[in-house]
Every structure is written in structure tokens, then in C-alpha cells.
TrEMBL record:
SUPFAM superfamilies registered for this protein in UniProt: Ribosomal protein L29 (L29p)
InterPro entries per the UniProt record, alphabetical: Ribosomal_protein_uL29, Ribosomal_uL29, Ribosomal_uL29_sf
Name by which UniProt lists this protein: Large ribosomal subunit protein uL29
Pfam name, any one: Ribosomal_L29
Biological process annotations from GO: translation
GO CC annotation: cytosolic large ribosomal subunit
GO molecular function, one term: structural constituent of ribosome
Keyword list, A-Z: Coiled coil, Ribonucleoprotein, Ribosomal protein
Length: 81
């Protein structure tokens, strides 16, 4: 899940999503331990999603910027004649 999706959620939805992701990670760990998980990278992506959601939640608590800043458009310098 992209970080932009987390920015669009309110705090209650974020907490709910974090709890869902933690439950999913719990189940994935059991599947991995019993060799039923075909792609172990799912564990990594689930952990990263939890971290992204917690980061957005913490940014809101601290009152930091909520939206990612867009990069400024670069312009070329004028050539001297």
C-alpha cells in the first residue's frame, strides 16, 4: 500500500488498518514457520505497511507536514553569449 493512501485516511481508520496489518503479519509468520508461505517477501511488505501507517499517525500527533512535498521544477541556467 502506498503512503499516499495512508495520508487520505483519518486517525481512526489508520489505527484500524494498523491492527488489521498486525493480525495479517501474525498469520503470515505462522504460515512461514510451517512452510506454507510461497513468497516470504509478503512478510517484508506487511512490516513496511505497518511502519508507513505508524509514521503517518505519528506525524499527525506531532503536527508535522501531512502531505509529501512535490519536487520543485528544475530550470536550466541561461547561457552566456
Amino acid at each position: 500500500m502506498k503512503a499516499n493512501n495512508f495520508f487520505e485516511m483519518n486517525n481512526e481508520e489508520l489505527v484500524k488498518k494498523i491492527n488489521e496489518l498486525k493480525a495479517e503479519l501474525f498469520n503470515l509468520r505462522f504460515k512461514h514457520a510451517t512452510n506454507q508461505l510461497s513468497n516470504p517477501m509478503v512478510l517484508v511488505t506487511c512490516k513496511r505497511d505497518i511502519a508507513r501507517a505508524k509514521t503517518v499517525l505519528r506525524q499527525r500527533e506531532l503536527g508535522l507536514s501531512v502531505e509529501p512535498e512535490k519536487a520543485a521544477k528544475k530550470t536550466r541556467a541561461k547561457k552566456k553569449a
